[in-house]
């Protein structure tokens, strides 16, 4: 049975410092697609050689998983666990903030020197109360380590979860499915998502029919938990991020860089960050 469409929403434009980014969730008509609580699309931006690049200085997270998908360009990550890595186009970095992590991210020196196009998605995946204070962790994989399925003028990249007996390299604590799907004109991609999981597709570019519904660039499509089958047909070169996860049936308190169950836990997170309990990272 095909998953049916709940709704299609347009991405809203928000400002982060001097950069405009697309934010399909949260917004007034769609607070979340539980457990996915925030999606930011930094649309393709050309960086001149030796320009300022982008850099987000050290900041904390607790209670969820911030994930960065790199579609174009390169992103360097440093964190309070001592991880330092550069993820290139097609790669992913998956942070389990758990009880607390401090990280910075931006373009690495090598990318700033030569310039180029940058396009990324940042996704916040909520964690249930039983995992909000779990040990923080960092996973990063480049495109060479992400298995893919080539179909009729299309490719599914399996970052997390499984398809056709292929398993993505990310070890998700909550059984999240994360695929990127690339299609050429006339491309067709068919796959399945778990029954009972909430699901969404965000279209970065192109023009598709998604289970028969017209989808355009910068739109997010929310799918029903019932059903498993997906069929995407492209009329132009198109790229999508497809996600599925079990909904978390708990209260949510989201403030700044924290996603907890209650406001008391948010206050505790603020105190714990200020007193150094989330670790340190030099700026
Ligand atoms: Mn962050």
List descriptors.
283 residues; mainly beta; binds manganese (II) ion; Jelly Rolls; 24 strands; globular; 56% strand; seven-stranded antiparallel sheet; nine-stranded antiparallel sheet
Structure notes:
8% of the residues lie in helices and 56% in strands. With 283 residues, the protein is mainly β. It has a single domain (5-274), classed as Jelly Rolls. Strands 1, 13, 16, 17, 18, 19, 20, 21 and 22 form a nine-stranded antiparallel beta sheet that branches. Strands 2-3-4-11-6-9-12 form a seven-stranded antiparallel beta sheet. The chain has a four-stranded antiparallel beta sheet with strand order 5-10-7-8, with no helix packed on it. A hairpin with a 2-residue loop joins β18 and β19 (213-216). The longest helix is centred in the C-terminal third of the chain and has 12 residues, at 263-274. The N and C termini lie far apart (51 Å). The chain binds manganese (II) ion. The site of manganese (II) ion has 4 residues, from β5.
